[in-house]
Amino acid sequence: MSTAALPPLDFVFRRATKRTRDIFASCPDEGLGDEEKSARMRLAVKINDEYRDYKQLPGPLLAKQGLIGPSAPKQLSQKMITAGPGTTDTSRLVAQIDNTPTPQPSTFTSSTQLSQALTLHKTTRTIKPTYHPPWKLSRVISGHLGWVRSVAVEPGNQWFATGAGDRVIKVWDLASGELKLSLTGHISTVRGLAVSSRHPYLFSCGEDKMVKCWDLEANKVIRHYHGHLSGVYSLSLHPTLDVLVTAGRDASARVWDMRTKAQIHVLAGHTATVADVKCQESDPQVITGSMDSTIRLWDLAAGKTMVTLTHHKKSVRALAIHPTEYSFASGSAGGNNIKKWKCPEGTFVFNFGGHNAIINTLSVNAEGVFFSGGDNGTLSLWDYDTGIAFQNMEDVPQPGSLEAEAGVFCSTFDVTGTRLITGGADKTIKVYSEQSQ
Amino acid sequence: MATLAALLPNPVHAPTVSDDEEDEIVQQPQAAAPSLSIISRGVVPSYGQRAGWKPASQDDFGDGGSFPECHVAQYPLEMGKKKASSGNTLALQVDSEGNVRYDAIAHQGQRAGKIVQSQFKDLVPLQHRKDLDDEARNMERPSEDEVQATADKTRAALEKLVNGKIKAAQPKNIPDGQGKTSFIRYTPGQQNGSQGLNQRIIKMSEIVEDPLEPPRFKHKKIPRGPPSPPPPVLRSPPRKATAVEQKEWMIPPCISNWKNNKGFTIPLDKRLAADGRGLQDVHINDNFAKFSEALYIADRHAREEVRQRALMQQKVAQKEKEAKEENLRLLAQRAREERGGIAPKPTAASRAAMTSKLADYGSDSGSGSGSEAGSDDDAEDEDARQIRDQMRQEKRREREREMRMNNMGTEQRAKMLARQQNRDISEKIALGLAKPTTSKESMLDSRLFNQESLSGNFADEESYNLYDKPLFHGSTAAAAIYKARGNIEEGNEESFGGGTDEGIGKALDNDRFGLGRAKVGFEGANDQEVREGPVQFEKDTGDVFGLDQFLDEAKSGKKRGLDTEVGNSRKRRQLENAEKD
User: Fold this and answer.
1) Residue A301 to residue B154, Cβ atoms within 8 A
2) Which one of A330, A370, B200, B538 counts the least CB within 10 Å of its CB?
3) Where is this chain compositionally biased, Acidic residues type (chain B) (predicted)?
4) A240: nearest CA in chain B?
5) With the CA atoms of A295, A298, A304 and A308 taken in that order, what torsion angle do they form, in degrees rounded to the nearest 10?
6) Under an 8 A CB cutoff, do A241 and B158 touch?
């Protein structure tokens, strides 16, 4: 009997097993499950054999981590050796097997106060931002011949005024965007504008050291507030008193009596140009931000500093006071450059993070929409309560302007808070409006 | 014993505690109720128990002196203690939780109400701060009442300031003059014997002040007080700029093609970049090419046309010339035939043609004679021949001249042309006809004349000093011009001293006959100064028109009407004349 005469056995075997499976297909199968269990066991044993030493960080490393302090909350789930992106059966098996609870690092087992504080932080940081509809550029007004450096909206919300590097103050209709009036008189850039809500007066200040009071019934200058030693960069009206505060390059803010033109106070203390000044009705009634990278909160009655805030690293160019909340925000250059402060004592509230530019202007409206405009033309809109940006935009300079002329210098919301007026280095005034459904 | 003491009520009058007895009673309540002992004034341990105890305050000393058994510095009744304000070191302060307040120095010397943020907690966001409750996190605006209160308070403070500032401008503040006088009865306190001066009445009034008087004392500027201490800085120090950042901030130096004050060597590519020529590619409008193409085509077209026209004209001229030659040939042939005697009677047509041809040559008489040839032939023939001969001669002369012209050299031809155009004046010069143009500008060369007077005085237009100096005064030009040159050329050189000034002077001085200098020359010539230039005229100040005399008369008050006889005589003469007529 020769083996060569027989047919190959493999084929026969395969056919036999197929037939068996067909026969027993209806029956519940136990053998396969058994096989899987054994495979798991085998894998577990293998993993344990091979990777036992690497399940935890080596001792010195762990000790070092413990010395430094708690790891960031992101790293709480400790990285284990897991499968790669491939979806093979074995990798899924490994993932299923490895469900042992991750051993906590030693720092967490000893429950210090710091770790408790950190867990507290996690719980307290759960304020949800309110929804704000997006904002869209709705109008570009090109009428100035220089950088538009200041803008102010009239309390009646009928018109707004802009001051520019062409030394002219222009008054525009808010609804139609038409030019209503041009006021000439400054001999240098107009840096600050304010319209009084209790008088028919427009106040303006400029780099020519002049602070002017315009009578809007005659469209003439009726008063000059003389005394600044250098360019006046900012101006603010007191909401309840007949008092005007100007600040400028002579590192001082000056408080003027509106009617008598007398200089009531010189708020001295800054060591560099005061870039912005804001007034509010309750203490601190005057807030100044300066190029010496400090913010000062002033006691207006005494003319003295109440608090000096030194948190900013670069010069503070912009301030914004919330109309209804008892807080204000300040902006400077660099990272973590917009900060919110609680008002009477200037407590630090939080940072508006993510706008990496020189902040030239800040505005906030009553709905809690907070706007920051950068020197490189980046615009950000934030939720004022939580400090979360909900919209980031780029300023598009008008055609014909240089690449570097995409900066935003001034901004203001109108009285209703539904439109945002900005003035930029491309010599235009841009009106953004809320996109309501 | 202790239980009994606890049960019994406290004695109304505390017994005087002696130093050496009942120390347990004193110390026991401390152990039992520590709160009481802390609140109550520290009790001094009795003598012998004071190991480790230190007097802390003045109360511990009671009224007595120091405790010698406590080895610390003690100052009962502050005796011998140095004043604390001598140094500027601060005492170490501790807060309620026992932490050292390192920021005490930041709060030192600040005003009372000032908030100084000096701790790490001031850097922590408000939500994450543990030391604050929800009330402190609340950011409600103050109520209207509070705002009103703040406004009133501030307004009061500011109004006070403003009133102080504008007091100078208010009119009621003018000091009143001498109106205020008061009388004071004065009784001297020390009346040492003198009886006469018991009482005096003193009148007191203010000194009148000039309101416009400048201040008598110099207003000195008081130097500013020291500034408040700087606040603690709650930010990390500025980072050093990295190399990348520095590179980002690198501003390339300005390269100008026009200025290089420091004289740096600037590479050529930088110069080209500064030039800005390479920055924009030159874009030439297509229309330029179209325009030049059109111009070129039009130009060629026009040239072609002109050439064609010239060709045509040439052809026409050639044809005309041929016709003329033909005519002449005919004429000549006829003449030859006539001379030969075989003159065929010209037909009327041919005659008419011939006369017209002859008329072309401009001889009216010929044509006229030709028409009347029928009556007297011979005479007419003679005339015609003469004319023909003349014409022929002229022709020949012309031809000769042309030939000569053709054979002439270029220079001669140029001369010829010049002569034709009246440019050659050599003949005219030879004939003495040529005269230079007499233009003033070209004749006078200002360099010859007195330069300093000209150049110095032409500059200012205000001064009218053009004629205040003689024209040729003391200049070499004047000497050169003013020269007696009468007959130097024909006579000898010696006569008139060679014609020069010094020669003449020498000749005059040369006393040939030994007569000495003439004592008396011409009368009136002595007081005339020696002339060294041309004759100069002085302004005549004399009364030429009798104006001065007239004015004198007018001043003297002589009336014109007084010389009546002159006026009368004239009138009479006029009347006589009228009668005669």
Assistant:
1) yes
2) B538
3) 374-383
4) B151
5) -30
6) yes
Percent of chain A scored above 70 by pLDDT?
81
Q: Report the alpha-carbon distance of residue A48 to residue A388 in Å, rounded.
A: 46
Show the beta-strand stretches assigned E in B331-410: none
**Interface contact A121, partner B, CB < 8 A:** yes
Coil/strand/helix, residue B383: helix
Angle between helices B364-371 and B377-407 in degrees, nearest 10: 150
Q: How confident is the model at residue A79 (pLDDT cuts 50, 70, 90)?
A: very low
Residue A362 pairs with which residues in a beta bridge? A372
Interface test with B, best of A347, A352, A376, A384 (most B CBs within 10 A): A347
Is the CB of A306 less than 8 angstroms away from the CB of B114?
yes
Q: What is the 3-state secondary structure (H, E, C) of B47-90?
A: CCCCCCCCCCCHHHHCCCCCCCCCCCCCCHHHCCCCCHHHCCCC
* Cβ-based neighbours of B141, under 8 Å, separated by 6 or more: A282, A324, A325, A326
**Assessment of whether the complete model's pTM goes beyond 0.80:** no
Tokens of B127: 């939500």
Tell which residue, A362, A378, A274, A380, has the closest CA to residue A322: A362
| Separate counts of helices (H) and strands (E) for chain B | 21, 2
**What would the DSSP string read from start to end of B410-422?**
HHHHHHHHHHHTT
Are A387 and A350 contacting, i.e. CB atoms less than 8 angstroms apart? yes
Q: Give A244 to chain B, closest Cα distance, Å.
A: 12
Q: Is A198 on the interface with B (CB under 8 A)?
A: no
Q: Extract the tokens encoding B548.
A: 């001065």
Give the pair of three-digit tokens for residue B333. 């042939």
Beta-bridge mates of residue B481? none
Which residues of A fall within a CB distance of 8 Å from B158? 241, 243, 255, 257, 264, 300-301
Q: What is the pLDDT of residues B118-133, one digit of tens each?
A: 988 899 999 888 888 8
Reported as type and span, the H/E element at residue B333 is: helix B286-340
| Res A264 pLDDT > 70 | yes
